[in-house]
Amino acid sequence: MNKIILTDCDGVLLNWEFAFCTWMEQHGYTQIENGNHYYDIGERFGISKDEAKAKCKIFNESAAIGFLPSLRDAMYYVKRLHEEHGYEFHCITSLSLDPSAYKLRKMNLEKLFGPTAFTRLVCLDTGADKDEALDEYADTGYYWIEDKMSNAFLGLQYGLKPILIEHGFNMKESIPVGMKKVVKWKEIYEHILGKENE
Q1: How far apart are CA 176 and CA 81, in angstroms?
Q2: Among residues 12, 26, 64, 178, which one has the fewest Cβ atoms lying within 10 Å of its Cβ?
């Protein structure tokens, strides 16, 4: 059995949302009420799509991107899946094409999850679609952990097993057949090991 798990990074492994919103507030921006219910940064901060995209790109290419905290219990269970059960992780992230951003993301992941858990890191452009990156893994049946419904659904179309991490912005989304929604990595860990033992 090929023990590879595909993951997104922001909102799955790392708490990008918290770090970005803190950074935005430091730069004079304020989230609207219940802003965490919006995936779109423009809607969340009441700014144009172009300005929102520019702010995401600046943040993703800043030194701050190398120091994001882990999301919820991700650190504990990713390490357990890797160290105790032999899983390796391939991370596909729409971060930036900047080589320094890639190095900072790699450093951040290795610092939190250990130097060997992630055997592949694919950095796409800021906000880029993941079609081509997932096409490479078509029909492998690998788990694909995401927080954006359209990307999770894309995984389903490519013959992967998507697991959606719940956030304020996706909690009301209806889950299609073949996809699972979870709040914590503990649920992912138990689900994967449960399937192993079937």
Answers
A1: 26
A2: 26
In angstroms, what CA-CA distances link 34 with 15, 45, 115? 18, 11, 37
pLDDT in tens, 129-158: 999 999 999 999 999 999 999 999 999 999
User: Rounded to whole angstroms, how far apart are CA atoms 29 and 154?
Assistant: 33
Query: pLDDT tens digit string along 169-180?
Result: 999 989 999 999
42-74 exposure pattern, b = at least 16 Cβ within 10 A, e = fewer: bebbebeeeebeebbbebbbeebbbebebbbeb
The span from the CA of 28 to the CA of 22, in Å, is 10
